[in-house]
Amino acid sequence: SQQFLTSVFVAGSDVCMLPPQVGNCVDGERPHYRKRWYYDPERETCFAFLYSGCTAGSNRNNFVSYDECRDFCEDIECKSARRLFGEGCWVICFATVISF
């Protein structure tokens, strides 16, 4: 008997896996540093960092508040299927397997 995985539903986002980026100011932009939050997948929580306000060299793992970061990256739930397994931002919620 052989089994083949035919479909997988994954909840989460690779945004949560990105490293924090301060952002690079270019073309005369001046930094306006402000507190932002990023998700650390190894420690499985959100941490504050200083963001320059400049978008060059930044990424989307950049949240205005701790709650926004936590809600996006930590509180992933399977809405329509039971959770099979997963940690951090990636959660396998549903998988279809056929056997021969």
Q: What is the CA-based Rg, rounded?
A: 18 Å
Largest sheet: 3 strands, antiparallel
CATH architecture title = Irregular
- CATH level 1 class label: Few Secondary Structures
Q: Helical region count?
A: 1
| Portion in strands | 35-45%
Kindly name the structural category: mainly beta
Order of helix and strand elements from N to C terminus? EEEHEE
CATH homology superfamily = Pancreatic trypsin inhibitor Kunitz domain
What general outline do the C-alpha atoms trace? Answer: elongated
Strand order of the largest sheet: 1-5-4
- Tally of domains: 1
How many strand segments? 5
Percent range for helical residues? under 10%
CATH topology: Factor Xa Inhibitor
User: Cα distance, first to last residue?
Assistant: 5 Å
Average pLDDT, rounded to a whole number, is: 77
User: Which stretches of 5+ consecutive residues score pLDDT under 50?
Assistant: 78-90
GO molecular function, one term: serine-type endopeptidase inhibitor activity
Protein name: Collagen alpha-3(VI) chain
Pfam family, one: Kunitz_BPTI
Keywords: Collagen, Protease inhibitor, Serine protease inhibitor
Question: Can you walk me through this structure?
Answer:
The chain is elongated, with a radius of gyration of 18 Å. By secondary structure, it is mostly beta strands. A hairpin with a 2-residue loop joins strand 4 and strand 5. About 13% of the residues have low confidence. It has 1 helix and 5 strands. It has one domain: Factor Xa Inhibitor. The strands form 2 sheets. A 3-stranded antiparallel beta sheet has the order 1-5-4, with no helix packed on it. A two-stranded antiparallel sheet has the order 2-3. This is Collagen alpha-3(VI) chain. GO terms for molecular function: serine-type endopeptidase inhibitor activity.
